[in-house]
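Side project, low priority. Logging it here so it doesn't get lost.
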Amino acid sequence: MTQQSPKTPPLLDPDEQPPYSRYNPDGQSGVVLVCDHARNATPRSLAGLGLSSEILSTHIGLDIGCEHLSKKIADNLDSVLLIAGFSRLVVDLNRPPDHPTSIPVQSDGIDIPGNQSLSIKDRQQRIDEIFTPYHDAVAAELKQAFEHHQRVALISMHSFTPQMDGQARPWHIGILWNRDQRLSEPLLESLRGEPDLCVGDNQPYDARDHLGYTVDAYDGMPGLTQAMIEVRQDLLTTTEDVSRWADLLTRHLTQALGGWGVSVKR
């Protein structure tokens, strides 16, 4: 009799949080917001990836302040928001699964012990249990939006650390794009009208370098435009800061989206 190999235990325990959650699920606008790096949680089975809670709470573990900012904008625009449940260090939802930083072994000079020497099976399990369900949910939300709107916008919300690899980053906000500039171009133009803002065009990251998977996956879909928004994390430290940035972005997004015929709450 052939001996069967033991079944691989699931990555996520049955009582753990899901790979994503929905905020304002009944939002009526033609905008779908996503927050790929919202939280720093790790599955119990990964034991914190061998990192301290202090390190997981830094910019390498999550986009600090971004979940609160995204929720405020979702309220302002009456948009559905998808929130990632686990840290980008477990599997990065905004990278192609075969990208070198999909499951990083190091981030900003810090080694990630739980990501060293992973087997193909280990990597695939993170993709199957976290990455794929999240992106299936994004696709489902877009399909739902298109049932009510001819034109839809997919906006990926992020925040970035003021310094990376020892280099200071002067931008207050960055608008990232790859091939589709129908939203990014008017948004950049609008934001540059703010006299006190330093606005980055594909800064602090260049989305043309496979760094915007969540929006790139739907590039070319008829009626859909997309963009990534990055806000510097030291500008999101208080509730008042978050509200101020949410109101500013709502104003500029409403103008840019309206010019392309995407319905938003006013």
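Brief comment: The chain has one domain: 20-259.
Revisit when time allows.
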